[in-house]
From TrEMBL:
Residues 57-548 form the Amidohydrolase domain. This is Amidohydrolase. Gene3D superfamilies: 3.10.310.70, Metal-dependent hydrolases, Urease, subunit C, domain 1. Keywords: Hydrolase. It holds the Pfam family Amidohydro_3. It comes from Streptomyces paludis. GO terms for molecular function: hydrolase activity, acting on carbon-nitrogen (but not peptide) bonds. InterPro entries: Amidohydro_3, Metal-dep_hydrolase_composite, Metal_Hydrolase.
Length: 553
């Protein structure tokens, strides 16, 4: 890819030509003009000649693909950066390997310079031992240091004795067990203690690292899902300030604090949040046995106290939150995974609609994060109430299938009902795709592939629908219908890709065959068949400003 002038800033006029431009304005477009941070024109190579003399820069795409930049609709930015720059256990294949990584991490960091050790990503379900490390094993590997190691889903954690000693009263909190992963309030308390040890300088570098990684993957926008049980106000406001001050992906922030009145709404708005939404926990996660279920977990003993998980908010609390947010002009949103949790959300939102009118509820575009286990009734309620499903297809890729963690937790029958993307789309429920990084990595094309090749075939959607959910869907989730697509007037958020032949992929072969007919006007996308190489980002642009250029460009 070559440019006839040096790259300019967002006020320059740029003509991109000689490639493939993915645009509904012209399915056969090969060129695009960007002016003052917005798309000014999309069209054919021949028509591009008329613009060539009047622009500040001409970029020869040399056959590359131009698409809208991705939006990741659910991210924990600082935690993602800490995982990128610190101890990552996601690749550990056994318990001994994980402990060896902890030991090496500790030895590389003298206590005086880094008092609390932080890690992420262990998943005992993927290890031959099928158990997490004991506290004694961790104490030994960490050399007596404070250590915080959340499970891959970040809804439970194993910690060392030294970290527990920093949290007075933790042993009396819900979720504390002497030699098992901590959940609920006990987990939140040790997480807060661990994160307090992160210096402002470490935090800023972690945030920069996460934004750099996102930009290198063609992601132009991140939805930060913060809150008092996840991070802290200083982390949240510092991230928003950083995104305004430095080039990189946009940040739209959500603060997951339960509110019930105007005072609470003003507090959330004062933090710079778009809504009291994101990870406002109605329940936990399937991996940690804390997602709220209507029927018991399949792998929980009859004597277990938490056989159906934990419901943190009931319908009445959800109703109060939705009413307060709607009246204040804020988005409300909830983390809900199990069928008991999604049922509580729809019951609460329905009650709010009865108080305020369903038109106001629909117009507010309230959100539900994850929304994994839905009944036909809750799915229909999502559509009726105008709820956006902010979902993570990589969860199915990681834990779905007949031999996956979901099947062990729920049994094959219930597990096969998880993440029903095709049914959500058929019902008219808006989808916004994300990663929940660092739970699963930032990986937009991998996310699109996971939805198109869902482990349960009836839940698969077309590559085009999945791509839309990961681009335009994220913008619609914040109330913007004029972005996330390359049409005149839209923000110039785009990515340039090196990829192979463009195709049309859909679960129904009849649809795929028709879509490749020129009469359908369907623009192609990269072939995402499992095993094929994913596209490589050459350049990422946000509001007309280049925020990433590949090493060979």
């Amino acid at each position: 890819m070559t440019s006839h002038t040096a790259p300019g800033d967002s006020h320059r006029t740029v003509l991109l030509r000689g490639g493939e431009v993915h645009s509904p304005a012209d399915p056969f477009a090969t060129a695009m003009v960007v002016e003052r941070g917005h798309i000014a024109w999309v069209g054919s190579e021949g028509a591009a000649d008329s613009f060539a003399e009047g622009v500040d820069e001409v970029m020869d795409l040399e056959g590359a693909l131009v698409t809208p930049a991705f939006t990741d609709a659910h991210v924990h930015t600082t935690a993602t950066g800490l995982a990128l720059t610190g101890l990552d256990l996601s690749a550990a294949r056994s318990l001994p390997e994980a402990l060896a990584l902890v030991r090496a991490h500790r030895e590389a960091r003298p206590a005086a310079g880094d008092g609390v050790l932080l890690g992420h990503g262990w998943d005992a379900d993927s290890w031959p031992e099928r158990r997490p490390p004991t506290r004694a094993e961790l104490d030994d590997a960490a050399g007596g240091r404070p250590l915080y190691l959340p499970r891959v889903d970040v809804h439970s954690a194993v910690v060392t004795t030294a970290l527990l000693d920093l949290v007075p009263g933790v042993t009396a909190l819900p979720g504390y067990r002497p030699d098992a992963p901590l959940t609920d309030a006990a987990h939140h308390a040790v997480r807060a203690a661990a994160h307090r040890a992160v210096s402002p300088e470490q935090r800023t570098e972690a945030q920069r690292a996460a934004r750099r990684r996102a930009a290198s993957l063609g992601i132009g926008t991140l939805h930060e899902c913060a809150g008092p049980d996840i991070s802290d106000e200083d982390d949240f406001t510092a991230l928003l300030a950083l995104a305004k001050a430095e080039p990189g992906p946009r940040i739209h922030g959500y603060w997951a604090e339960h509110i019930s009145d105007e005072k609470g709404a003003l507090r959330v708005r004062g933090l710079g949040a778009m809504g009291a939404a994101g990870d406002l926990f109605v329940d936990g996660s399937l991996g940690s046995h804390t997602a709220a279920l209507c029927a018991p977990y399949a792998d929980r003993a009859d004597t277990a106290a938490d056989r159906t998980g934990t419901l943190h908010l009931d319908a009445a609390a959800i109703e109060a939150h939705v009413v307060a947010c709607t009246e204040a002009g804020l988005q409300a949103g909830f983390h809900a995974i199990g069928d008991a949790a999604t049922a509580a959300v729809t019951a609460g939102v329905r009650a709010a609609a009865e108080r305020l009118g369903i038109a106001r509820i629909r117009a507010a575009r309230h959100r539900v994060e994850h929304a994994e286990l839905l009944t036909p009734a809750t799915l229909a309620a999502f559509a009726d109430l105008g709820l956006t499903a902010s979902v993570q297809p990589a969860f199915d890729a990681a834990w779905g299938g007949p031999d996956g963690m979901y099947a062990r937790r729920l049994g094959a029958g219930r597990a096969a009902a998880l993440n029903p993307y095709a049914a959500l789309l058929r019902a008219g429920v808006p989808l916004a795709f994300g990663s929940d990084a660092p739970v699963t990595p930032l990986d937009p094309w991998g996310t699109v592939r996971a939805a198109a090749f869902h482990r349960t075939p009836e839940h698969r959607i077309s590559v085009r629908a999945a791509f839309t959910a990961h681009t335009r869907g994220g913008w619609r989730a914040i109330g913007r219908d004029d972005a996330g697509t390359l049409v005149p007037g839209a923000p110039a958020d785009y990515a340039v890709w090196r990829t192979e032949e463009l195709v049309v992929q859909a679960p129904d072969d009849r649809v795929a065959r028709w879509s490749t007919d020129p009469r359908s006007g369907t623009p192609g996308l990269p072939d995402l068949t499992p095993g094929r190489p994913l596209p490589e980002a050459l350049r990422t642009v946000v509001a007309g400003q280049t925020v990433f250029v590949g090493p060979n460009e």
